[in-house]
Amino acid sequence: LQECILSGIMSVNGKKVLHMDRNSYYGGESASITPLEDLYKRFNLPGTPPESMGRGRDWNVDLIPKFLMANGQLVKMLLYTEVTRYLDFKVIEGSFVYKGGKIYKVPSTEAEALASSLMGLFEKRRFRKFLVYVANFDENDPRTFEGVDPKKTTMRDVYKKFDLGQDVIDFTGHALALYRTDDYLDQPCQETINRIKLYSESLARYGKSPYLYPLYGLGELPQGFARLSAIYGGTYMLNKPIEEIVIENGKVVGVKSEGEVARCKQLICDPSYVSDRVTKVGQVIRVICILSHPIKNTNDANSCQIIIPQNQVNRKSDIYVCMISSAHNVAAQGKYIAIASTTVETADPEKEIKPALDLLEPIEQKFVSISDLFAPTDLGTESQIFISRTYDATTHFETTCDDIKDIYKRMMGSEFDFEEMKRKKNDIYGEEELQ
């Protein structure tokens, strides 16, 4: 997906783009697999899916589960590039958080917050005060700080200021600010406050949850950006094996495929194409589960997110569950797909993810994958090779978008500017739209 978005953006920027993929489908690691038979093959499961799974073609199973924040960076990219015209989205029905072995809905309105059994009565009043503070907080207006220095005061101190207890801190940091670990507590609070603002603003847009998900699965996203690239003259080649990245004097000059060399000035790729220029920074375990029932205690939601904060299960990192269903045209009628993921911490990853799987029982079929996480050791300054990072365990696209902006900056020497893209598009499309 990162590469598809960048090829779209670079094409709009007037660059000449050739996009090659060794796979026969768009999106690489972030593809949606269809039909279901292909998923069985991909995970080397014997036999074919049972009759009870319905038609194989009715399935579109994401390999990497993520939702879009309604007010987040990816939605902005989709709107500015008008890739939205190729996609339809649905709002995810609820966001839940795990506490003491049970799941609770993350309150999405003031009324829900007051009725929620996540907190006691007085805690609710303090939490409400905190939310009002966050909503009014403006990093450019010191009058909204109330004695907090956004660049110095730690988040731990801000929680203390509002006298919030451990349970509230847990769900605020992990289900609202979406941190994977507790490291953020001792960092300056500005970033956390902005993350909670993003959550609240995203929530305000549609009401049920702050998350959106495209019909037919996430595989639609890279295809949308591939189309954008094509409109602006980009060329896309699937099934193209990459034999060699051609380097002269330490700089990339081309890519060799099937005996031919396509010459280039800059190259963007994922870590799997340049194993000598990346380093392993961890692992993620993901378990795709097919269910014939909605998840218990979610009010029969046909889609939801569940976050298990690390504190609740004595871990360093959170466990996530994303659930979608036939309502999103990704599964056969009456079927649900729940994908659990977390950062690996021990030698027995399957045991680490058990708290999530327990919430999903009974599970009809499981597909387990453990992926290495890579980060570039070569930032491309000399070589002009720009390498994306592997998808982390988070269940939203904010970290992916940070990576896209980082690559853009390294390539172009300037920050990625949405407004600039908007203007460029008006230059090209302006005339037609007036008629």
Automatic annotation (TrEMBL):
Any one GO cellular component localisation term in the record: membrane
Record Gene3D superfamilies: FAD/NAD(P)-binding domain, Guanine Nucleotide Dissociation Inhibitor, domain 1, Guanine Nucleotide Dissociation Inhibitor, domain 2
Stored SUPFAM superfamilies: FAD/NAD(P)-binding domain
Location of this chain's protein in the cell: Cytoplasm; Golgi apparatus, trans-Golgi network; Membrane
InterPro entries named among the record's database cross-references: FAD/NAD-bd_sf (IPR036188), GDP_dissociation_inhibitor (IPR018203), RabGDI (IPR000806)
Domain of life: Eukaryota
Keywords: Acetylation, Cytoplasm, Golgi apparatus, GTPase activation, Membrane, Phosphoprotein
Record-level Gene Ontology MF annotations: GTPase activator activity; Rab GDP-dissociation inhibitor activity
UniProt similarity note: Belongs to the Rab GDI family.
Role of this protein: Regulates the GDP/GTP exchange reaction of most RAB proteins by inhibiting the dissociation of GDP from them, and the subsequent binding of GTP.
Protein name: Rab GDP dissociation inhibitor
Organism: Rostratula benghalensis (greater painted-snipe)
Organismal lineage: Eukaryota, Metazoa, Chordata, Craniata, Vertebrata
